[in-house]
Design brief:
This protein has 161 residues and is an alpha+beta fold. 37% of the residues lie in helices and 12% in strands.
């Protein structure tokens, strides 16, 4: 994740929190390469303490290889730790709405089935998000598909709570 993306992730975190989407865990995984390791402190300074910046050890198995992804990907999990979206470039650029919308869907909808960690008091927050999404033209509803999109992108039906 480049420094600009990191600062945009911090902005997105604040925006979502102000909209009532709380208790979301954010983790930035720094690349294993020497250049990225030297820039680790700058990456850490680009975000608040609410976003964990993880530095991979050179000797460990690469996290991105393990997750079948690339360094600029966003993997979005639900409360039960199930992968809901895997967004790759260009859909992972935070100047677009894909990451934000995917986080909101993972937060508010049971895309992967019921989760025992669903919080009952998110109804009002999610109701507003669902209303806004329903007001959008149908063509903006579609999520990207391609080699980096998780299979759940094929499920476009909406769950209302």
């Amino acid at each position: 994740l480049c420094l600009l993306q990191a600062s945009r992730l911090e902005d997105l975190r604040v925006k979502l929190e102000n909209e009532g989407l709380v208790n979301i865990s954010y983790v930035v995984v720094n690349n294993q390469g020497a250049y990225s390791r030297r820039k680790f402190h700058l990456l850490k300074e680009s975000v608040s303490d609410y976003i964990t910046v993880y530095q991979q050890d050179e000797q460990q198995a690469d996290v991105w290889t393990t997750l079948n992804g690339n360094k600029d990907d966003f993997l979005i999990y639900d409360r039960c730790g199930r992968l809901v979206y895997h967004l790759g470039l260009p859909y992972s650029f935070l100047s677009f709405q894909y990451v934000e919308e995917s986080i909101k869907i993972a937060y508010c909808e049971n895309k992967c089935g019921n989760c025992s960690y669903t919080v009952p008091d998110i109804g009002g927050v999610c109701e507003n998000i669902t209303k806004k999404a329903d007001e959008k033209p149908a063509e903006t509803e579609a999520k990207p598909s391609g080699q980096h999109s998780h299979h759940h992108n094929l499920h476009r039906h909406r769950h209302h709570h």
